[in-house]
Amino acid sequence: MDIRTAKIEVVRAGRALVEQGLVSRTWGNVSCRIDGEKFAVTPSGIGYERLTPDLIVVVDCNTLDYTGDIKPSSECGIHAAVYRKDPEASFVIHTHQTYATCLSVAGFKTLAPTISQQASLGARIVLAGYGMPGTKKLRRAVMKVYAPDARAVLMRRHGALIAGTGREDAFNRAAMLETICRNAMKEIAEAHEAALGNAALTAKHAGTSSSGTIDVIASEQEDFAVFNSLYKAAFKRWPGLNAVSLLITPAICAQSAACRLIPALLDDFAQIVGPDALVAEANAPAKAIEKRKGRSAVFLKNEGVFCFAEDPSDLEAIQALCEKNALAWQHAGRFGKVKALSLIDRYIMRRWYLTRYSGKR
User: Fold this and answer.
1) Which domains are present in the chain?
2) Of the chain's two ends, which shows fewer C-beta atoms within 10 Å, N or C?
């Protein structure tokens, strides 16, 4: 494949990942093999909606050298290793799809694809051990289990890696993998999807005008009084905020009712929300707001999660991560005590995100 065509394929795939809900913001990455020596891959820290062929990076499969001033994805080493190990693989996508990520925490052995699903997937599903994003440890863990007949890899606490003979093949596998994982946690998934389809479950604040007045967009719901008191307290305490929201779903309410501290089970939660989040009483807004402690969310006991963002575009990502972390907690609880990420990994990833990555889009 010529370089220009490969770059166009990567751009199309990046946008499709967002449209299909397999990633958001700059999460995940995509690559397309050019030939036996090179591949085209998404850049580091640039949102999929901004991608153009000129922003796609060409990387050497053997040395990881790249051309130009734009850095490739921090996971380009995994893509290169796949292409070296599997000559038939021509397209690789790394997603943060919800159900596959949940199954990477606990319950992997409950996956039971039907014969038809196995045929559609065309690959075994394997589970890779944990490694922090962008590290050699993660690369080694993935390549330890990856094989030409095992092109669907759950990356523990992180997401999924899927390889295919082309863009369409890789995307079909990603979709089928999510269906299989959804079936393994069907009851939880159905409650989650019902919540997402119910507009009365969320109340959002869109920002402040230049005059300082607050423009609230909210659904008709009993919980608006809670939200009303919280956002006023939040903007009084942190005038620099541009968006806040109250998210109410079954998974989040269950987790907030059962825990005094919400730890990061997933590494993207640790990065973007915080290494953990405190649970507060909703009837004391000022005290609840003080429990933020630099995190992007405060959970309200039995009520939901109150999310904070300096950039309004971050708000949906923060909400999605709180929900995904809660779903993973709820599902993992079926298999015994839920184990969080190690404390040191959580703090390293949070610091790394705040100092090196949070300004990128």
Assistant:
1) 3-184 (3.40.225.10), 192-357 (3.40.225.10)
2) C
